[in-house]
Amino acid sequence: MKILTSWIVLIVSIAVIVSSCAYSDESKTTSTSSSTSSSDDTSDNSTTITDNSTNTSDNSSSQSVPGVFVALAESGNIVRSTDNGSSWDNVTSPTANDLNGVTFGNNTFVGVGASGNIIRSTNNGSSWDNATSPTGNVIRGVTFGNNIFVGVGGSGNIVKSTDNGSSWDNATSPTATNLYGVGFGNNTFIATGDQGNIVKSTDNGSSWDNATSPTGNNLKAVTFGNNTFVGVGASGNIIRSTNNGSSWDNATSPTGNNIRGVTFGNNIFVGVAASGNIFRSTDNGSSFDNVTSGLPGTSDYNILGVGFGNNTFNAVGKGGNIVRSTDNGSSWDNATSPTANKFFGVTFSESIYTDNGTTFKVTVSGGKYYLDGTQTKSLNLKKGYTYYFDSSDSSTNSHPFYIGTTSGGGNYTGEYTSGVTSSRTTTGTLTFIVPSDSPTTLYYNCGNHSGMGGTITFH
After folding, report:
1. Biggest CA pair distance of the chain
2. pTM for this predicted structure
3. Residues 379-394: pLDDT tens digits?
4. Choices 2.60.40.420, 3.10.300.10, 3.30.470.20, 3.40.50.300: CATH for 358-458
């Protein structure tokens, strides 16, 4: 009996041990499995986070390298801001010459200055190179339109580039008077200068004619917006034209200070002047009002340039001063500047559109396509993303919109249809799901008329 009892105890003990081991193993397995699962989840989540992070990175690279403000100053000083002017950093410059003006077009910044100096950047202002200039005269102003850069300067000198600022040629000027500012709109370049001089070109800067000016004051800058040119200059002079520069009228000015810069954004003209003076117009330049700049009203705080981008105005001037406005120029705040050098000009690079689902509003004026209000706008898009071109505006009714492998239009030669629906639309929306193997460059054109469209670059 004792032996039997011992065997029973032994069997029960073994069963308990086996059960315990089994529980322990299961526990281990569960724990390991749970740990693996947790590790897998974490890994998956981590991967998801990485993927999201990648997407964020993609979206961020999409907006580009978000839009960038670039300001140029004396002694070759270049600064840039990637956060709408909140903070600024110095950039290495290829010149020690004073830099007077800057503009942006076709993914290229172009700056101009003393002794005919021309510099350019094709990487959002991170690095710059000198371009060969056709003149030794000072170049004061520069602008971009219809895939052409135009600069103006001393002794009426006009220079132009048709290859994104790589090479430049002199254009025949109708004046020997110093020119300071140049602007573009509605297929027209307008330049302004000493003694109220105004010259214009309607053939992409190849030839120029004098226009009748309403003033004898020096005109320092000119800009375009809402089918209106606005020029500014000495003694608070403001002039405007609503017929592409053919005729001009004086506008009532709120200041007697010398005005040095003017720009347009969000349907508002903003001008900047001596002694920290800033003013604006909300009615296409018919009337102007002063606003508080936040700068002391002395000559130490002359404001010499102003630019607009991403719903932000940035104004720059003497002593390295920078002020910015995020409420359409109503109020202004000081920004910290990395230099005490005197600024002359500032501009903004358009963001690269790669956000999925971006819609471009297509309109037509003066025989040109406008995208979101910008004439023949150059686009930078992302492969794999979807974009919409809305041609519902009545101005597009006789202008079938399509994407092609060649620029020009007037027919459908080279029409690109991969990923495209509703091509040739005149009243609807063209949808473009960009293929991963799309060409690096395509063009948007009109099937009925040539020379209406612009360039699309893919990344």
Report:
1. 132
2. 0.70
3. 888 889 999 999 999 9
4. 2.60.40.420
